[in-house]
Structure formats: C-alpha cells, structure tokens
Amino acid sequence: MTTKTSVQPPNLPSAATNDRLRVWDPLVRTFHWALAAAFTMAFLVEDELLGVHIWVGYLALALIAFRVVWGVIGTRYARFSDFVRGPRQVLAYLKDELAFRAPRYVGHNPAGGAMILALLLSVAITGWTGWALTGGGEDWEEIHEFFAYLSLGLVIVHVAGVLFASLLHRENLIGGMITGFKRRAD
After folding, report:
1. What is the number of other CB atoms lying within 10 angstroms of the CB of residue 98?
2. Residue 186's pLDDT is what?
3. β-sheet bridge partners, residue 20
4. What's the sign of the alpha-carbon dihedral 172, 154, 77, 30?
5. Do 165 and 97 contact (CB within 8 A), yes or no?
6. Is 124 inside a domain boundary?
7. Is 182 helix (H, G, I), strand (E, B) or coil?
8. Distance between CA atoms of 108 and 60, rounded to whole angstroms?
9. What is the enclosing helix (H) or strand (E) of 38?
C-alpha cells in the first residue's frame, strides 16, 4: 500500500512553512532590482548613449516615486515605519554590528533603513539634476556628477553591509531579496 505525500520543491518555500517567512513582497523586490539595473545602466552608458542614459534616469525617478508611495501604503516590511530609525539607533546598531553582537531583524535593520533613505535621496537628486541638464541647465552638471558618484559609493557600502550582515547572521540576504523569503525570527 502506498500513500501520497505532498512534497514541496526545495528553495521554493510557501508562505506557510514553519522556518521561512515572506518578508519582501514582489513590488519591493521588483523595485530593488529595477532601480539597481537602471542606475547601473545610466552610470555605465553615461554620455556614450545619451538617449538611453536619459530614459533610464527617468525610469529611476519613476521607480523612486513608486517606492516612496509604497513605503507609506505598502506591506508591513515595505513601510518606512517598519525600518526607519533615528540616528542614535542607527549608530548603536552599527556599533553592535562591528562588535559582532548586533541583533537580527526580520525586515531591514536600522543601518539598512538608513541606507535605503540615503540611496533614495542620492539617486533622486542625481535624477533631478540630470533632468535639469536636459533643459539646458549646464550649471547642474557638476552636481549631477557628484551625486552619481555619491550614489555609486553608497551602493558599494550597501553591498558590503549586506554581505557583512549575511555572514554575521548566517543568512543569505541577497537570496531573500530574490525569493522574498527569510528565516523566521530566532
């Protein structure tokens, strides 16, 4: 006599599994990777393909506008109220992280929340100043380039922080931003 059992494929947990929790909704994940792609493309093509540079800049601005709205009305872990903390909490978290004793967060930790705000602001200013340049405002060029390079620096710090936190908490945070799932609280 054989019995049928339901087997769930590995790496595809459902929202009902005991050890995994859906944290990042599809809109957050799509936004994240689309903004990363738009910024990368705009940075790489620069003036060589100015039309592409301008259009992916517009795309980045549209994505940021969407994320700001979704940060207010979105799902629990997408809302700014879930992860935006004051400077004292961010600095205390960073201090604990450097001492390898930072607590794990299911959503964004305080440093991650601060980085989200910094990246949104820096990329938005890059886009706005680029937009001003398309109208003939040559005075904006140095500001545009400054914020483009500042954004690149923030991206590098962001990736380093994600890798560090992944190692510290023994959790694949990049995988979580792809699948939407993280392990439940410890």
Report:
1. 11
2. 61
3. 183
4. negative
5. yes
6. yes
7. strand
8. 22
9. helix 26-45
Rounded CA gap, 126 and 147, in Å? 5
Q: Give the range of the structural domain holding residue 87, as residue numbers without chain letter.
A: 25-183
CA distances from 168 to 173, 174, 186 (A): 11, 14, 14
78 DSSP assignment: G
Please give the distance of CA 146 from its chain centroid, rounded to a whole number.
Answer: 21
State how far the Cα of 138 lies from the Cα of 146, in Å rounded to an integer. Answer: 14
CA–CA separation, 27 vs 39, rounded Å? 18
Asked if pLDDT for residue 166 goes beyond 90, the answer is: yes
- Total structural domains in the chain? 1
Spatial distance between the Cα atoms of 86 and 43, rounded to a whole number of angstroms: 31
Compute the distance between CA of residue 120 and CA of residue 65 in angstroms, rounded to an integer. Answer: 9
Residue 15 lies in a domain: no
Question: pLDDT digits over 121-145, tens only?
Answer: 999 999 999 999 988 878 899 999 9
Q: Per-residue pLDDT tens for 51-96?
A: 999 999 999 999 999 999 999 999 999 999 999 999 999 999 999 9
Q: Would you say residue 12 lies in a domain?
A: no
Query: Does a structural domain hold residue 3?
Result: no
Instruction: Indicate whether this model's pTM tops 0.70.
Output: yes
For residue 147, the tally of other CB atoms under 10 A from its CB is 21
Nearest to 116 by CA among 166, 41, 64, 72: 64
Beta-bridged to residue 22, according to DSSP, are: 181
